[in-house]
Amino acid sequence: MPRNTIRLQISNAYNAHSCDDILCQLCNKRYWRSRIPSNRRSDFQATKPQSEKLHRYLDRIIRRVERNFPIYLAVVGKDPYRTGPIGIPFAKSTLDATFATDSGKVLFPALGIQIENWIRCERDVIGFYDELCNRGIVFLNVSYKFIGDDFVKSRQLQFLKCANLYNKPILETAENVVLCGKAEKGTKWANSETLPYYTNALKPWHPSASEPSSNASQTKKNNYLQKWKPYWGGSGNLLRMLEPNDSGPIHEAIREMNELVQ
Known about the structure:
This protein is mainly alpha-helical.
């Protein structure tokens, strides 16, 4: 693909079809040089740091794609954290906080990341995500505006389509895609046709899903065993799902990541 083709496609589509919501981490940037309505200034200021980090992170991914470096794995979540988002999907302000979230404490060990060593070495959270990106492992959200539990197509479609302008070119080139929980539904809603990356993606329950209680129905327990546990139920589970022969570029990337903090 010619250099800058993806960036031009994103720029043209974004200018025409963005959701233009000041709380969207993508669209907040549209207001950086504008006069902010007085009743939205606090929203703007709260979201701007997230927007800055998100754009920096996405630009890093897009530059990798433009230069024909492979994206070995793209993991897609639903939306930013309710509290303490920093703009990068699945990230909080520190690695300790990131690995302590309901998602992070499951997702990264399932990928084979030795989170205890990363916490001990007190590495920077943005540097951690940059190192993963440099090795072809990236993280996206199906919406860059917080949605929460109110996930309804008629209400959220504008935010899903906005995020899809950036996500789609990345996901189309990714060799492996994991759509976590409702990210599967959101990705499908945002696209008017079924795309190969969607069809071929792994579609597990979200890593933050909890184990059913002992008095839950057998159907619910079976769903848990089928849709959550094989991916997230142990260290390296997701990694082995992606590369069953215990070798490949994702295994190599994770090995290099762990060697950084030995």
